[in-house]
Amino acid sequence: MSNEAATMTTAVDAPAPDPLPHGLGASLPSTDTRAKTEGTFPYAADLWAEGLLWAAVLRSPHPHARILSIDTGHALKMPGVRAVVTHEDVSDGALHGRGSVDRPVFASEVVRHHGEPIAAVAADHPDTARMAAAAVIVEYEVLDPVIDPEQAFEAEPLHPDGNLIRHIPLSHGDPAVIGEVVVEGQYRIGRQDPAPIGAEAGLAVPRPDGGVELYLASTDPHSDRDRAAAVYGLEPERVKVVVTGVPGATADREDQGFQLPLGLLALKTGCPVKLTATREESFLGHVHRHPTLLRYRHHADAEGKLVKVEAQILLDAGAYADTSSDALAAAVSFACGPYVVPNAFIEGWAVRTNNPPSGHVRGEGAMQVCAAYEAQMDKLAKKLGLDPAELRLRNAMATGDVLPTGQTVTCPAPVAELLEAVRDHPLPPLPKDTPEDDWLLPGGPEGAGDPGAVRRGVGYGVGMVHMLGAEGADEVSTATVKVQDGVATVLCAAVETGQGFTTLARQIVQETLGIDEVQVASVDTDQPSAGPGCRGRHTWVSGGAVERAAKMVRTQLLQPLAHKFGMSTELLQITDGKITSYDGVLSTTVTEELRGKELWATAQCRPHPTEPLNEAGQGDAFVGLAFCAIRAVVDVDVELGSVRVVELALAQDVGRVLNPAQLAARLEAGATQGVGIALTENLRTARGLVRHPDLTGYCLPTALDAPDIRIVKLIEERDVVAPFGAKSVSAVPVVTSPAAVASAVRAATGRTVNRLPIRPQAAVTAQ
After folding, report:
1. pLDDT tens for each residue of 542-600
2. Interior CA angle at 648 toward 644 and 652, to 5°?
3. Of 340, 536, 552, 739, which has the highest C-beta tally within 10 A?
4. Is pTM beyond 0.85 here?
5. Helix or strand or coil: residue 648?
6. Pairing, β 273-276 against β 53-59
7. Among 586, 594, 583, which Cα is nearest to 562's?
């Protein structure tokens, strides 16, 4: 008896379990976390189909050559080979490309970059496919490559559209203004690769109606479908793209030149065809960040206030245009940074070369200019004898200020508050204060370096990016919310690339409808388009579409109750799964009111329109802006030139925190990616040939390279035109942290540091 009593007492007194995270503002975990950690998540590389064939692609070994002949006969005669496709199999010579459609599926007359596809093979074994691809005989006339973008202006045209992709001459204010203090600089930014965790893979399955289904890690499935249909000579409805698990995306995840041969081979053989790229093929095939040459002249008065900025920006687009026009618009528009500049004269060009193709990579355009204008601010502070943070504060942009494009900043722009937050954050201790951490010094206590040669530096970076598309891009997304048997389902073609959209969609529906169980359907092109997954746009437009659809379902749910009690639906609220009226007369549960009902609604979200920049670089080209400030602390071995980033203190305006854990992860990941850009990541080329296209030659930062990242302040000043008031969060730390690290290395060494990534010789001081 006493034991039973004790047991009962324990049960009564036991604390209730913590409720599961719920709705907006909660750290709701992702539903695919367990599957990814256990290795059961379905990526494209894991797919299989009955009668599967394997594909391989023959790529050009030359950056520039004329194709004299292509002989596929030897490959076709090999046992197990089922088909070989070349440019002759492409419908009407259709081209592809994101942004600009100027890229052939297979080179036909001329090769324009190292690794350009020439032919593709389908065989019954992957080794057979690779050997057959190597057996395709191509006769080349090797040509001199154009590898210097400055030479592209005078070189023979590399493409029927010419070498100049776009020229933007931005003019704002009075060109005759001269500052009391003037500093100049020239800067170079290297070529970064998105280096996705999983290399590209895909499966194409022919359909009975003569069409084809493509299973891909696509980030823009509807665009990929439409381009594939044009290449295959089919109507868009006969091509279906099914999105598989995306193994990370910090750029356009899937190169269309990789996808398109799959469907051609499947249609030709009548069999499913699979292709899994090697890491080398991945490096050669997809786009990279634009290498950039920047020349700057900053004018300021004696107090450090900027009066004029002059700049020239040259983007190396590589062989094809892709999204270079968009990148150039961002670079020119943000060339002065988040600072008030009454007079700005920026000239930007994007040109074709025979270097690897460039395109959309997180923070494109904005990252390159941030590194340059922040270097200029350091130079200006040094010349004026001012603290670098103080100089930046004297010029910080705020809401109501005007961009060099003439557009007024109407969104929250708390630049000074962000900068003050990172400046005032306590600095990390010196290694001498914590001797057990000596191993963290560059070179380490047992390494080649001398701890006495280590210098500490503190530097700052302040960056900005635009959200959504720009210059008149029609940003729109469609979503459907269905509720049946108390379970809500979201249908939206917004691809989950790791940015957390599926989690956000669940939170929105939970918040709006008070339903715990929310499922997000897989994505394919049978659903209406949601657009590409970049620039944080799915948080805005797709999240906004989900919210509107959920609110329409909410009205359907509450309308009968409101009518019954003679009140409007606005007087009813849903909280913690309960429906109550303002006066307390009505109190019921969502579960009870949904019993036996099936409700659904479809809605769109389309932000206000923008306009292209005019011939003077003026225009309201952007929907919204996001800002970030980072203070970097580095230790530099000034004898070896080795650099260790000790800490990044980060402050950012986020509009509204929708998922705290997810937000922190995105900020930390973006800042760490920026460390790689600053110190190690550079896809090197020699006369247009990619050197070491693998993860030993291309050095990504590891967990041991990641610094302590302190998120010291998140400003939640909601953008009134954005759904939930939230802003894009992951791109702006990528833009800002390389500039901050370079600034800290300058402070430690006294060297100019005008290249990214920073070479060891740039961090060595004269003895």
Report:
1. 999 999 999 999 999 988 888 888 788 888 888 888 888 877 778 888 888 888 889 99
2. 155
3. 739
4. yes
5. strand
6. parallel
7. 586
